[in-house]
Amino acid sequence: MSPPVAARAITRRRTILASASVALLGAAGAALLARAGWRPFARTEPAEDLSIALASTPHAALLHIAAAEGYFEDEGLAVTLTPVSHGKAALDLLAQRKTDLAAAAEVPFVISVLQGEPFGIAASMLSVSTEMAVVARLDHGIRQPADLPGKKVGVTLGTSGEYFLWAFLIRHKLPPDAVTLVDLPPGRIVEALAQGHVDAASTWQPIRLDAESALGLRGVSFTAPAAYTVTHVVVGRTDFLRQRPATLRKLVRALLKAEQFSRNQPEHAMAVAAQRLKIDPAALRPSWADLGFRVNLLQSQLVTLEDEARWAMARGHAPPKAVPNFLSHLYLDALLAEQSDRVTVVH
Amino acid sequence: MKIGTKGRLATTTALGTIVLLAAVITWAHAEVDEADGERRRTSEIARALNDLRLVTFEYTLYRPERAHLQAREAANRLDRLLATHPVSDPQAREILAELRARSTETQRIFEELRSSPPPTLGSRSPEGDALRRFEAQLSRKLLVLQQESLVDAFRLSDVSTRRIAEAQRRVVWVFLAGLLMIAITTGGAAWLIHRSVLAPIRRLEEATREVASGNWNFKLDIGGNDEIGEMSRNFDSMTAALRASFAQIERSNQELATLNKEIEAFSYSVSHDLRAPLRSMDGFSLALLEDYSDRLDDEGRDYLQRIRAASQRMGRLIDELLGLSKVTRTELVIREVDLSVLSREIAETLEQQHPDRDVRWEIEHGLVVHADKSLMQIALQNLLENAWKFTAKTAQAVVRVGRTEHDGQAAWFVADNGVGFDMNYADRLFGAFQRLHHESEFAGTGIGLAIVQRIVRRHEGRIWAESQPSRGATFFFSFREPTNEPRQQGHPAG
Fold it and tell me: How far apart are CA A182 and CA A198, in angstroms?
C-alpha cells in the first residue's frame, strides 16, 4: 500500500470510528431522554372545562387533592368543583344537567338509576367500612344494638346512611322495620340527636364525629365493618361519558396521580383535604387512616350495587322491578385505557 | 507515559468495565430470580384463595361439615403463605397487609356464619326473615371479600411480574450502558494508540522517505517520553550526525577535486613545457651528429646517441603521462562496445608493425560491454601490447581475449603465455612507473597498467591479475552490472 493510500485508509477509519462514536452517543442520549419522558414537540392545547359536584366530605378528597396539586391542570382540564351537602344532592345537580360529573356514594347512584336517570360510574375513588356508625343516646336506653327496636333513628333517606342502618340491623339479626326512620338532611342530624328529637342517628364522617362530640358521655357509637363497605364513585350522565372519552381519561389520570400522592405523602394529603374541606386536621386524622383511596372498578361492586338495588326497591325508593344490569352503568374505557389492572369487572 | 503503560491502562479499563458489567448483570439476575420466587409464592396464595372460595361456596349452599374442615385447612394454608411471604416492594407490602386483614375478616365471618343456626325452610316468621337476611348478608360479604382477595392476589402477581420486567429492562439498559462504556473505552484507546503510536509511526515513515530522497535537513521532532519519543530523538541525532558527515565528505570531495585539477594542470603544463627542451636536446643532438660527426670521436657520438635516446624516452614518458591525465579528465560516453572487434583491430595493427612475430590470437566473439569506447580502446591497447611484449621471448606465443565468471559476476580477460610475474609483487603492478621487469629486458614506461586500472575504475569496475613466472599472465577486469538507474558519468572527483 502506497503512503497516500495508507493515509487515506487511516483517515477513512478515523472518520468511521468518529461517526460510529457520535451515532452511539446520540442514540444513547436520545434513549435516555425518551426514557426520561422528554418530548421535544409536545403540543399545548387549550384546557377543557369540566364541572364536578361533590359532597363536602373527606370521601371526595382525591378530587380536592387533584385540584390543589394541579393535577387537573397538568392534564389540560379546567375543573370547577361545586360543593354540596351530600352525594345525593350532587346527583340531583347532575340530573338537572347543572354539572358534568358528580361524586357520591353508590346508594344514591343506585336509587337514581332505579328512578330512570341515565347515570354511569366513571371510576370509584374510595371505599371505607369503618367510618359509618349508628350514634345513639345512652340516656334514651340504647346501650347495645339490640336496644334499637322501637327507637327513632335519624337518617338522610336515600343515602348510604339509610342503607348502612338497614345492613347494621341485619348484621345484628334485627328486623329492618324494627326502628322508626326520621328523615333528616345531613346538616340537621347532629342538632336533632343532641336535642333528643331522635334516639339515634345513622350517618357518616364528619357528621358522625360532630354527633359524638355533641353527645359526649351521653352517646354511644355502633359500627359494622362487615355489614357495609361504602364506596364513593364519580358519576356522569351516560351521554356525557360516551361523548367525552378523552376528558374522562384525563380525569382518571389526575385521580391516579392524586391517589399516588395520598399514598406517598399521607400527612400532606390529609392537610390538603382538611384545608379544602375547612376541617380541623386534628378532627380529620382519626378517620383519615381508614379511608381507602383507590381508583378502580371492581367486580364485587356489582354485587353491592345489585344488593343496594334490591334494598332500594324494598324500601320504596323505586318501584319494584327486576334488578337492572349495572354492568351497562359502569364506564370502563377510561380506566382500562389508563391502568387496566384497576378494572376487575368481568367484561 | 510509556506505550506499555498506556496499553496496560487501556486493558485494565476494558477489563474493569467488563467486570462491572458482569457484576451488575449478576445482581439484576438475582433480582429477577427473587421476583420470580415472589411470583411463584403469589401463585400459591391465589391457589389457596381459590380453594377457600370453592369450599366457602359449597358451605354456604349445603353446609357440609367436610366443606367447613376444608375451608379451615385452606384458611390455615393461606395464613401460613401470607405470614411467610417476604416482599420488598412497598405496594406489594400494602397489598399483603390488605390480604392478611381480609383473611382474618373472612375467617371471622365464616365462623360467624357457621355458628348461626340455619333458617328453617318455609318459615316466614320475623326472626326467620332476619336470620335469612343475616346469612345472606354474611354470604355476600364472604363473596365480596374473597373476590377482592383474589383480585389482590393477582395484583400481587402483577407487582412481581412488573418487578421481573423492570429487572430485565434494567439488565438491558445496563448491558447497553456497558456496551457504550466499552465503545467509549475502545474509542479512547484507539484515539490514544493513533495519537501516540500510529501518527508518530506515519511521521517516521515520512521522515525515512525524506531522508532516503536526500533531505537530510528533515527533523522528526516527535515529543513525548515514550519509546517513540525516544526513537524520534535518536533519529534526529542520527540525521544530524549524517548531515555533518556528508558535509565533511562534500568538503573533502571539493578539496580533492580542486587538488586533482591542480595536479592535472600541473601534469599537463609540465608535460608540454618539458617537450620544448626535449625537442631542443634531441634536435641539437641530431644536428651535432649530422653536422659535426666528423669532428667527434666514437665516444662523443655515442654520448650524443645516448642523449637522443634519453630525450626520446622522456618524450614517450611525457606522452604516457598526458595519456594518463587524459584518461582521468575524459567525460564518459557509455554505450555498447564490442571488445572482440576492438581486440582484433589492435591485434592486426600489432602484427603489421611487427611482421616478424608469430603470435596466435584467440579472441572470443561477441565480447560486448557497456563502456566508453575510446577508453576501452586505450585499455585494450595497453593490455594487448603488454601481452604482445611479454610473449616476445616465448616460442609459441598465444594471446587470448575472452569472458569468464568470477564470484558470480561477468569478467573479461586478456591472457598470455609470456614470461609472467611473481604474484608477490602483484600489488605493484598497477602503480605508475612501476615495472616488474628491467627495461633492458622488456621496454616500457610502466604507465600502461596504471592507465588501464584508472579506466576500469572510471567504469566503477575492478581489475586484477593472476600469473606465475614463465607461465604467462592473465589480466581480468569486470564492470558494475548495468542497471536501469542512470550511471554517474561525471568526473570521479567532481
Answer: 7
Across the range B114-128, mean pLDDT stands at 72
| Residue range B338-349: mean pLDDT, rounded | 93
- The secondary structure of residue A297, as a DSSP letter, is B
Task: Answer yes or no: do B221 and B343 share one domain.
Answer: no
Q: How far is CA B288 from CA A315, B283, B313, B314, B466, in A?
A: 185, 9, 19, 20, 48
Is the Cβ of A341 closer than 8 Å to some Cβ of chain B?
Answer: yes
- d(CA B376, CA B378) in angstroms, rounded, equals 5
Q: Do B143 and A173 touch (CB under 8 A)?
A: no
* Percent residues over pLDDT 90 in chain A: 68
Per-residue model confidence (pLDDT) at position A11: 56
Residues B294 and B353 in one domain: no
Highest mean pLDDT among A331-335, B466-470, B477-481: A331-335
Same domain, B385 and B486: yes
Confirm whether B46 is domain-assigned: yes
Question: Cα–Cα distance between B320 and B433 in angstroms, integer?
Answer: 10
Q: How many angstroms separate the CA atoms of B24 and B170, rounded?
A: 9
**For residue B110, what is the nearest residue in chain A, using CA coordinates?**
A226
Q: Considering the domain boundaries, does residue B102 fall inside one?
A: yes
Please check whether residue A192 is in contact with residue A135, taking contact to mean a CB–CB distance below 8 angstroms. no
| Low-confidence winner among A156-160, B32-36, B153-157, B247-251 (lowest mean pLDDT) | B32-36
- Residue predicted with more confidence, A221 or B121: A221
Q: Are residues B389 and B491 in the same domain?
A: yes
- Chain A: residue nearest B176 by CA? A28
Q: What is the pLDDT of residues A216-225, one digit of tens each?
A: 999 999 998 8
Best mutation target among B111, B132, B141 (most A Cβ atoms within 10 Å) is B141
B177-232: pLDDT as tens digits = 878 887 887 888 788 778 877 888 888 888 888 888 888 788 877 777 778 888 88
* Cα–Cα distance measured from residue B74 to residue B53, given in angstroms and rounded to the nearest whole number: 9
Chain A nearest-CA distance from B200, in A, is: 13
- From A24, which residue of chain B is nearest by alpha-carbon distance? B180
- Residue of B112, B137, B160, B209 to mutate for A, most A C-beta atoms under 10 A: B137
Mean pLDDT of A98-127: 95
The answer to whether residue B256 neighbours chain A at the CB level (below 8 Å) is no
Determine the structural domain holding residue B478 and report its residue range: 332-494
Q: Which of residues 245-264 of A touch B (CB under 8 A)?
A: 263
Q: Mark yes or no for CB contact A300/B205 under 8 Å.
A: no
Residues B161 and B306 in one domain: no
Residue A3 predicted with pLDDT over 50:
no
Question: According to the 3-state scheme, what is the secondary structure of B423-464?
Answer: HHHHHHCCCCCCCCCCCCCCCCCCCHHHHHHHHHHHCCCEEE
Contact B151/A173, CB-based, under 8 Å? no
Q: Does B138 touch chain A (CB under 8 A)?
A: yes
Please judge whether B194 and A14 are an interchain contact, meaning their C-beta atoms are less than 8 angstroms apart. yes
Distances (CA, A) of B474 to A43, B403, B412, B427, B448: 108, 12, 10, 15, 15
* Interchain contact, A303 vs B202, CB within 8 Å: no
B206 belongs to a structural domain: no
Q: Is A340 on the interface with B (CB under 8 A)?
A: no
